[in-house]
Amino acid sequence: MSRLHVVTGKGGTGKTTVAAALALALASGGRRTLLIEVEGRQGIAQLFETEALPYEERKIAVAHDGGEVHALAIDPERALLDYLQMFYKLGSAGRALKKLGAIDFATTIAPGLRDVLLTGKACEAVRRRDKNDRRVYDAVVMDAPPTGRITRFLAVNEEVAGLAKVGPVHNQAQAVMRVLKSPETAVHLVTLLEEMPVQETLDGVAELRAAGLPVGAVLVNMVRPHLLDEDLLDRAGTGRPEGSAGHVTDALGRAGLSHADRLVAPLLDQAREHAERVGLEREQRAALAELDMPVHELGLLGEGIELAGLYQLAADLRDQLPPSREAA
């Protein structure tokens, strides 16, 4: 069973929203999840209508049946200080380096170091156990970088392990990659039923698989409902079939609308546009189906994203996800 859920997606697909909803869904059944932000945008705090996330883990939400969602915004500088203390016992010397600006310099200039720290912190949370040797978190959800950067972001530890042949850096990088390439990890890709996001999803899955990283599911966000049945869709897609205008005029008149004839042409145009959109969406669904991986759909929220809407998305996801097993 996957414990680390990495959520990526093209910009504008609602990646952060879906990551937050997934964390809530995975907390169902009284479970405990950790939601991690790595890009420093504080999008998670905005979604949960809470103050900016600190580097320390704290509870930000309760699932509908009592589960808990904790959250953390990873600061690369603080993560590097933790790393220096963990492996080199620098303590106050590490804090002195921060004051001198050496920490900021290292995370900016050292190739891949920032990504190593971010992925390392997430994997540490996955492995962490309490004094009773039980997992502290049943699941960890990472709001990760966009699809175009996700493979390099996750695979950077492999590069670091190759550069540092021995020592703590090598061992840490190898430990992180063991988690990232194991069944404990699943990389989920958020998309819309539009050509560009779907194509980027197809490319992203191919890159992840080529790198040996485990893909999880495609999460299709902002799915709009179909307003017409199959027969009406077929007729609307042909433009203005013979007799449609008269039928629409009669129906509007029976509904009590005055000047119904003025509304007919715009309504038929909207029906045609709707039919065209449904056809394009079906083409994108067919493309995603060729990936041979789970596809879950989340409906478009008419009122926009607020806390109630986030819980609704979580409920929709929970109904589609496979049943959770108890933590070991």
From TrEMBL:
Transmembrane segments: none annotated. Residues 5-175 form the ArsA/GET3 Anion-transporting ATPase-like domain. It comes from the Bacteria. Pfam families: ArsA_ATPase. This is ArsA-related P-loop ATPase.
